[in-house]
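User: Structure please.
Assistant: Input sequence and predicted structure:
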Amino acid sequence: MFGNGLIKGLRITLKRFYGPNLTEYYPEVKPNLPPRTRSSMALEPEKCISCGLCVNICPNQVINLTSEKDGNNKRVLKTYHMNIGRCLLCGLCTQSCPTGALRLSQEFENAVYHREELQWDMIARSKRSNKLSGKEG
C-alpha cells in the first residue's frame, strides 16, 4: 500500500532530475512571450484623433488626455497620461479606439520603486521607444 506511492514519487523525481531543464536565464535571455500577452500599453500619438472614447470606457479612470483645436478646426492631442498602477489591462480602451492608436504591448519590465513612477506620459514614452527602435531620427 505505501510502496506504490513511494515508487510513484521516486519515478516523478527521477523524471524531473534527468529530464529537460525548465530554467529560464532571465535577464540575459528574454522570454519568448505568446502573441496575446497583456503586459503594458503603447500609444501612437500621430494616429490619435483625441476622441476621448478610451477615457470614457475605462472602468478605473486610468486615462487622462487633453487636446486643442488647430487652424482647420480639428482636434490635436496635447497630453496623454495613464495611471498604470490602477490599470487592469482589460483592453477595453484599445478595443474602443477607432484608429488603433492605443494598443496592448508585450513590454513586461514595468517594475518601479515609487508609486509616482506609475504615472506615465504616453507621448514621451512613445517618442522614447521610437528612438530606441530606430523609427525616429
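Residues 24 and 30 are 9 Å apart (CA to CA).
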